[in-house]
């Protein structure tokens, strides 16, 4: 039926339909390429930042470059290790997560050093800290083990939600002594429990490292000159988590995909049947708007444009285009009384928009996920 009607059209009308289809395909293709490129760039940038964060001698972008600590000096060396027991809460919307972990300190020197008693969690709040074990040997070797419950502040990168990856970090410093008095060394036996689980995610890897951390303040210490800075050694735990599958993505956008199917089905309604022809995409538009609210409800307030916004924009734009094409088809069918052209235009645009939607919803998420 389609090919026969197409062959009966004049060359001028065939060119008109072809040009319209090509224009729509080019616009969609350009938008898909831009969106996919942005997602791929964000994914690679996030991976690079995570790698830099856990590299001892590299400064993460946007952080204050640390001042070099002297190689020699009268400082105590403390070996620090952790065992992450579990993650209690995890909320992208609230920009926080909480965990229970064990932390131990080994050092040789004065017993009064007490690194566990003076440790602080950077970008976090310790809600409970219990000294579980303490040992003081005859050869000035000492050991402390604590169990800590803490809540951490984490500004998640939401650009690729809901198929993103994150690095959860625990930052430990000595709250009283900077790097000229005490320095941490990472215990390579640090580990995480198999009970560490987050719904919808899987743990990809974990690591620990010690890096210098400079504060742009002397904290009002009268013994230091004005404008001086303090550099501490910071023990960092890094846990890489990635989405386990595409299930969350499908759940979030299921109603949007249903709305798109409803909108595209209007191309099979006779243009003269104005009621159903326009009510289908109109209902789909409201459904897509509602889906956008639901999708953004899992995210914190942000001015950045991410995967959720790209997919929602594609859906809303497609539904709006089906309404515009319905108006055009109605004009051709009723006013111009050209039923053949109206029929060919409807069927052609259905397949073009369907192909563009399928390609966009495959390429863009794939670029975000890698």
Would you kindly provide a brief summary of this structure?
With 370 residues, this protein is an alpha+beta fold. The protein has helices at 2-8, 11-53, 247-264, 274-296, 307-335, 339-369, and strands spanning 76-91, 96-108, 119-122, 124-136, 141-153, 165-174, 182-186, 191-192, 201-215, 230-243.
Walkthrough of the structure:
- By secondary structure, the chain is of the alpha+beta class.
- It is built from six helices and ten strands; from the N terminus they run H-H-E-E-E-E-E-E-E-E-E-E-H-H-H-H.
- It has helices at 2-8, 11-53, 247-264, 274-296, 307-335, 339-369; strands at 76-91, 96-108, 119-122, 124-136, 141-153, 165-174, 182-186, 191-192, 201-215, 230-243.
- The strands form two sheets. Strands 1, 2, 4, 5, 7 and 8 form a six-stranded mixed beta sheet that branches. The protein has a four-stranded antiparallel beta sheet with strand order 3-6-10-9, with helices on one face.
- Strand 4 (124-136) and strand 5 form a beta hairpin.
- The chain starts with a helix and ends with a helix.
- The mean pLDDT is 92.
Number of domains: 2
Radius of gyration: 30 Å
Helix-and-strand structural type: alpha+beta
Element pattern in H and E = HHEEEEEEEEEEHHHH
Shape: elongated
Low-pLDDT segments, ≥5 res: none
Q: In the CATH hierarchy, what is the class of the largest domain? A: Mainly Beta
Largest sheet: 6 strands, mixed
The number of helical segments is 6
Q: Briefly note the CATH topology name of the largest domain.
A: Acetylcholine Binding Protein, Chain: A
The CATH architecture of the largest domain can be given as Distorted Sandwich
Number of E-type strands: 10
Query: How confident is the prediction overall: mean pLDDT?
Result: 92
The CATH superfamily label of the largest domain reads Neurotransmitter-gated ion-channel ligand-binding domain
How far apart lie the N and C ends?
42 Å
Amount of beta strand: 25-35%
**Helical fraction:** 40-55%
